[in-house]
Design a protein that fits this description.
Number of helices: 6
CATH class of the largest domain: Mainly Alpha
Strand content: under 5%
Radius of gyration: 31 Å
Largest sheet: none
CATH topology of the largest domain: Helicase, Ruva Protein, domain 3
Number of domains: 2
Distance between the termini: 76 Å
Mean pLDDT: 83
Order of helices and strands: HHHHHH
Shape: elongated
Structural class: mainly alpha
Low-confidence stretches: none
Number of strands: 0
Length: 154
């Protein structure tokens, strides 16, 4: 029975851990504002964890950012104003879905550009290889064929 409980606990622990990131003392009393804060927090990157949103992260900086989001919302800022305020402070890196403007367009275009470049190089390689082969290979002369037949017989 204890093993079953241990296995069940270990299986469910990773599922439950992100839910515990937002502490009860951080939550706003107004459910509508809290829902807005959670939506904004899900789109902001934790600067410590890097691949987690601040809504999921347990880092102290993520907590500070969650509190800042809630503070700006209670001050009357719109969702866009809150995100703009955080981006102005920490840069576009804080966005989990960065915009395609400014220098970021290079990052957005780099993947497709590299694919096109690689496909072009592959085609050039295949065409060059086809030209280098020159068609059919040379045939054996009658003397070479007779010698090969002798070797294979003996």
């Amino acid at each position: 029975m204890k093993r079953l409980l241990l296995v069940l606990f270990l299986a469910l622990a990773p599922v439950a851990s992100p839910v515990l990131a937002v502490q009860p003392d951080e939550m706003l009393s107004d459910p509508a504002l809290e829902a807005r804060a959670r939506d904004i927090s899900k789109g902001l990157r934790c600067l410590v964890c890097r691949n987690e949103s601040i809504d999921e992260s347990h880092a102290s900086l993520a907590r500070d950012l969650r509190l800042l989001v809630r503070e700006r919302l209670t001050a009357g800022d719109s969702d866009t104003e809150v995100v703009d305020f955080i981006v102005a402070r920490y840069g576009e890196y804080v966005l989990l879905q960065p915009t395609g403007q400014g220098a970021n367009w290079i990052l957005w275009a780099a993947g497709p550009a590299m694919f096109v470049l690689a496909a072009g190089m592959g085609l050039m390689f295949l065409r060059g290889r086809q030209r280098a082969s020159g068609g059919e290979p040379d045939r054996l002369s009658a003397e070479e064929q007779a010698r090969l037949d002798d070797i294979l017989k003996g």
